[in-house]
Amino acid sequence: MINIFLKVVRRDDDPFFGFKELLSKDKSNKIFYISLSEDQYDLVKKVEFSWRRYFRFLYYKKIFLFIEQKLKEILINEIPCNVFLPDEGVWGLFINESNLKKKYLYKTINVQHGYFSKFYLRQKNTYHFRYLLNKLSRIISNYPTFGYGVGYGGFDVYCCYSKKQYDYLKFIGNKNIFICPYTLKKDLINKYYETKNNFHKNSVVVYLPTTIPGSGYKSLNNLLDLLQEFIIYLNQMQYKIDLRLHPGADRDNDINIINNSSLIKYVSIEKKCSNLHSFKNHNIIISANSTAIIEAEILNKTSVCIGTKYEKDPYGYFKNYIDLDKNNWRDKVKKIFISQNTSKINISKLNDINKKEFLNLLKKIHTR
């Protein structure tokens, strides 16, 4: 069986590591990676965090062609093939609706990366609009420009973090679903233990969400205003506060905005470093909905998801959630910070993938 791991975004860890390790135990499984060039990764970042994402079919045409060519070099008729992809946006739609899938009958496995936010879940309500835009973009370039929202990407198998995601995916009609946070984050866990730290006691890092148009936040200044009371309160609790800029941010511009804001006397701007170093250097991880919160929970770090009027956590995905619009948020901060985690990761509590069931399913989906 052929197994292809498609990496379309730069990552500190390898989301496929656990699956590759499992599949490599059977010598009949062939493993292939398809990665983009550095220039292509730069373009993906430039497009995804700007207005250009509304015209992906124009910017990604060469990348789509590159991926198709790489697939053609690997795929062989009548040999079962699986394509693993940690994304459900335009990339998932491109892979699942490609003519290559019809020709070679490969199956697709979604490897969860981010969280299921309200923003992404509500995309199902714009399905018909996105469908029409994709139809138009295919006429122009033969490629789509939008995904259809979580669970609607046409994957044959889904691998997710928790029962909440499992229940949602099942509710909307998906059948082959595995809860396997340990498998999904095995490389992250290994690298976390290998990463040296510069730990500061009573330190927090606040992962700033993106403030690009369409994200919910009007601007970085708007976001800083929403966080002001919260930041000042943490400062009063004698915590060292670092702000971590979003990877899609215009770093120089955002640093200038923060330096000229009233919050600069309470915070520092974290130097450019990997997520792993942020986790190692701080005992509390904070964000307004972020994959970093999920990863911190898996690593048994104290993590806090903060809700604002623009982004809540109505689905209860996060263990520690604080709504800054509620009057009791200060009490919740005290309770969480006092009882923060100090123990190591308890691997036994993380769901590993049911290896036998997963491997049997990969064979079964090719015989239907």
Q: What string gives the helices and strands in order? A: EHEHHHEHHEHHEHEHHEHEHEHEHEEHH
Number of strands: 12
Number of helices: 17
Poorly predicted regions are none
Structural class: alpha/beta
The largest pleated sheet is described as: 6 strands, parallel
The residue fraction in helices comes out at 40-55%
Beta-strand percent range: 5-15%
Rounded average pLDDT: 87
**Apparent shape:** globular
Termini, distance in Å? Answer: 16 Å
Jot down its keywords:
6-stranded parallel beta sheet; 368 residues; alpha/beta; 41% helix; single chain
Question: Overview of this structure, please?
Answer:
This protein has 368 residues and is an alpha/beta fold. 41% of the residues lie in helices and 15% in strands. It has helices spanning 17-23, 38-48, 56-59, 61-74, 90-96, 99-104, 118-121, 127-141, 163-171, 181-184, 186-194, 220-236, 251-259, 275-281, 291-298, 329-338, 355-364; strands at residues 2-7, 30-35, 81-85, 107-111, 157-160, 177-179, 203-207, 240-244, 268-269, 284-287, 302-307, 321-323. The strands form 2 sheets. A 6-stranded parallel sheet has the order 2-1-3-4-5-6, with helices on one face. The radius of gyration is 21 Å and the shape is globular. It starts with a strand and ends with a helix. The model has no long low-confidence stretch (mean pLDDT 87).
